[in-house]
Amino acid sequence: MSAMNGLPGGEIQATAAEEILVVFDQATVDLDALQRSTYAVAAQMTVDIRASGSDYVCTLFRRGQAPPADQLKHWFRSEVNDQILRARIAKETEPLRNLVFALAFSRTGLADSDVDTDAAAGA
Asked: Is 37 strand, coil or helix?
């Protein structure tokens, strides 16, 4: 019995024409998150992203012996959620990261040498 579909002796074969659709609302999902997700799952599937009205329609295409369609949908949705949260965390922590970078670079002496060079050029 095949583990893929429960039928004796048979397996589900993915055809080149098989399309798996996943739709996201543009109001809640950023195109950048979809594109990053597409890159993250590229080993298992390719994804075509199209804007349709107020939605993004993502068509998933299996690569090789990829898992069943439902599993690919779940995997892609999970990756999209992960990318959305990564973007939100990056936005929320940007001021703190900038402060850390400013402090780190302020101790290199690079900022002081720029001021000294400018002062010497004017003298």
From this structure: helix
